[in-house]
């Protein structure tokens, strides 16, 4: 049986201990330091025990060296890593800690006051990052690579987020498929501006970089001007982001002087690959980016549950509006509503099979069962094959909204909005938007005499929901449109917003 110390990412780090692994505004950290720090974290998590035996360890740490040291420390101690989002309000963090049944919560000092009470509830162990990184080295357990490694929370159509569980083998398959398709090497240097509680940043950027022995530079948050400044310093080879990030980079370029624009474009042209994903990249965006940088963004398609499934080619023509063909080791098929395979030119649900596909939804055996059909994962996304390439048509369910690269559940937002004292009922939909992909838009039934405005609602909702889930458009109605089964007819609400009757915008 293979040992955790044989975990490919750990083994790879040991081959080049003096090579820089992570560069942040706080400094440069080699692979050797990452191995030392994660060993200390693992020892601290174990606290004398032999093995965490798949205990969940939630951690709230801003993107940076300490984040990676803790993630690797959890793995090396035999635990399951549960990254928490630095942008989520307390109730959402508490939900993940409770649902994952975390035994330990590691918290960066920046969040200690806010999260410590929740972290210590129900006999959980609260561990400040400083203590985790300062432990005496202990021996580490033998852990099979088949063991579960990570839980990422993702919104589903049934309301509350579900925990997507991946094993070390799944993570290895997800990373290796991209490393081979996009020809990562230890000579690469990528800049991460993505949050590290979502697959895009964790796998496509961070894990691929470290598994290749490359350098991952990390900005704690995205700032368009800072990204351009870094690109202009030179040396970056790769960049990956959601379409919204590229929209902001374009706006920043457009605001620059002609001379600076020229320098920005020249620096960007020297990079070898820029990737877009997590939401559809509008063709106009890809074209604009090409005029600015000379690069055709490589668009790919994937999901928390499966890693990446489809990609445009690294070499050869990238067709805007298309997400290319299956990645190495990924089997992808399209199936109609009766479960029959469909041929080119016909729409069908994307179903996926392969070693990168997740193990299960955390403690949700029924949801796990329902999401597979004969061993194929049912993505809920609809696509069509044209000229041998997949084009994504959208989600089967209208209840999943993709905004700024995040996937949010309309049902979950509705649950929260309904707790507002002046809201009698509501329905939330996503309305297409060139900047955000979709905008969270809400139809509200409010109490008689209420003077609720979008501004007041947003201020209230920001205390309860992550900022990107807070509606940016509202419309007040006396009744919600419903079908004869009493179910709200969302396509009608979408039409309402699209025809310009959508009330107030932020
Ligand atoms: P997540 O699990 O948050 O990464 O969201 C996955 C979902 O994002 C998929 O099920 C798709 O609906 C959507 N998605 C990801 N990549 C693309 C893409 N290139 N084009 C359109 N939708 C995408």
How would you describe this structure to a colleague?
By secondary structure, the protein is an alpha/beta fold. Among the domains are: 137 residues, Rossmann fold, CATH 3.40.50.980; 106 residues, ANL, C-terminal domain (GMP Synthetase, Chain A, domain 3, 2-Layer Sandwich), CATH 3.30.300.30. The protein is 33% helix and 28% strand. The chain contains 16 helices and 27 strands. The protein has a nine-stranded mixed beta sheet with strand order 2-1-10-9-11-12-13-14-15. Strands 16, 17, 19, 20 and 21 form a five-stranded antiparallel beta sheet that branches. Strands 4-3-5-6 form a four-stranded parallel beta sheet. The N and C termini lie far apart (56 Å). The structure holds adenosine monophosphate (AMP). Adenosine monophosphate binds next to β13, β20 and β21.
Low-confidence spans: none
> In one word, what is the shape?
globular
Bound molecules: adenosine monophosphate
**Any idea what the CATH architecture of one domain is?**
3-Layer(aba) Sandwich
Describe the main β-sheet briefly.
9 strands, mixed
Radius of gyration, taken over Cα atoms and rounded to an integer in Å = 23 Å
Q: Work out the number of β strands.
A: 27
Strand order of the largest sheet: 2-1-10-9-11-12-13-14-15
CA distance, first residue to last residue: 56 Å
Q: What is the structural class?
A: alpha/beta
CATH class of one domain: Alpha Beta
- Residue share in helix: 25-40%
**Number of contiguous helices:** 16
> What is the residue-mean pLDDT, rounded to a whole number?
93
The proportion of residues in beta strands is 25-35%
> What is the CATH topology classification name of one domain?
Rossmann fold
């Amino acid at each position: 049986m293979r040992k955790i110390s044989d975990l490919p990412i750990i083994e790879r780090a040991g081959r080049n201990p003096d090579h820089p692994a992570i560069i942040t505004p706080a400094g440069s950290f080699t692979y050797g330091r990452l191995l030392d720090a994660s060993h200390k974290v693992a020892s601290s998590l174990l606290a004398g025990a032999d093995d965490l035996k798949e205990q969940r360890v939630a951690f709230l740490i801003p993107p940076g060296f300490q984040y990676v040291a803790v993630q690797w420390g959890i793995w090396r101690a035999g635990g399951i890593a549960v990254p928490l989002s630095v942008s989520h309000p307390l109730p959402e963090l508490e939900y993940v800690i409770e649902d994952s049944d975390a035994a330990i919560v590691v918290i960066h000092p920046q969040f200690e006051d806010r999260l410590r009470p929740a972290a210590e509830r129900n006999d959980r162990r609260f561990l400040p990052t400083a203590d985790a990184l300062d432990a005496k080295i202990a021996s580490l357990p033998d852990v099979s690579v088949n063991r579960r490694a990570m839980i990422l929370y993702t919104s589903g159509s049934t309301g509350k987020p579900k925990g997507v569980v991946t094993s070390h083998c799944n993570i290895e398959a997800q990373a290796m498929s991209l490393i081979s398709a996009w020809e990562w090497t230890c000579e690469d240097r990528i800049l991460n501006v993505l949050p590290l509680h979502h697959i895009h940043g964790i796998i496509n950027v961070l894990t691929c970089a470290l598994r290749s022995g490359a350098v991952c530079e990390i900005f704690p948050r995205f700032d368009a001007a800072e990204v351009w400044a870094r690109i202009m310093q030179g040396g970056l080879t790769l960049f990956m982001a959601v379409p919204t990030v590229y929209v902001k980079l374009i706006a920043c370029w457009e605001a620059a002087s002609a001379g600076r624009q020229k320098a920005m474009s020249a620096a960007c042209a020297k990079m070898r690959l820029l990737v877009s994903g997590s939401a559809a990249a509008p063709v106009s965006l890809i074209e604009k980016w090409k005029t600015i940088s000379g690069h055709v963004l490589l668009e790919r398609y994937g999901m928390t549950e499966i890693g990446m499934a489809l990609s445009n080619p690294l070499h050869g023509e990238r067709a805007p509006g298309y997400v290319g063909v299956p990645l190495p080791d990924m089997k992808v098929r399209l199936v109609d509503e009766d479960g029959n395979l469909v041929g080119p030119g016909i729409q069908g649900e994307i179903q996926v099979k392969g070693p990168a596909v997740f193990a299960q939804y955390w403690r949700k055996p029924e949801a796990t069962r329902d999401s597979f059909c004969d061993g194929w994962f049912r993505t809920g996304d609809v696509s069509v094959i044209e000229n041998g390439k997949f084009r994504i048509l959208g989600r089967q369910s209208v209840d999943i909204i993709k905004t700024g690269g995040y996937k949010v559940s309309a049902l979950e937002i509705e649950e929260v909005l309904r707790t507002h004292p002046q809201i009698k009922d509501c329905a939330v939909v996503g309305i297409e938007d060139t900047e955000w992909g979709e905008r969270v838009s809400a139809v509200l039934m409010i109490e008689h005499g209420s003077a609720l405005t979008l501004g007041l609602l947003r201020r209230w909702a920001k205390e309860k929901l992550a900022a990107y889930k807070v509606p940016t458009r509202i419309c007040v109605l006396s009744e919600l449109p419903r079908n004869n089964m009493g179910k709200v007819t969302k396509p009608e609400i979408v039409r309402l917003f699209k025809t310009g009757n959508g009330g107030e915008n932020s």
